[in-house]
């Protein structure tokens, strides 16, 4: 399958999506040309789902950066919190920058099914994101208990509570899972910005890359639909969007 054919499938739902490989290539070009930095001067953190498919489909060139420091748990919510962000910030080269790449993920198989992908070695498709699909199922069957977050399933319960706050919006959407993914993105984006505001960085720049990460079948790969691309100049405090 050609690249344009893969993009055509994904862009039925995410018209501005590009491959994750292209997104990393563009990012490296940006930091070299615009910020005059080399990848080895940049510490990368990601807050993406702990699903193994994201490790399998992680672009190789991303490893030109330092890291990644892992902030995310189920569906990318930054469960490492302020302590994780602070630890990550202390690892950055003094004359360098930090990049935080974050967002939920969703599957789109090559036959166009939303919320499913074909994984390596499996005969049948499986859910992606499984946590989001599970939380959505509980939402639509009215089995999420408001305010209930348990020690045994803390991360899943947190995702459930995020969706519960937007029940009507999600339930009335044409594709509820896609809308649930947008709701989770908004929650992640809000929390990441809160964490950044509360953290001290001893470097030049903080780069925030918010996106919907789109996985597909094992022979198709992954894609990135950007939602935020902000650069904070820590010397001046100026924040610029390059989206």
Automatic annotation (TrEMBL):
Residues 19-233 form the Limiting CO2-inducible protein B/C beta carbonyic anhydrase domain. InterPro entries: LCIB/C_CA. This is Limiting CO2-inducible protein B/C beta carbonyic anhydrase domain-containing protein. It comes from Lacibacter sediminis.
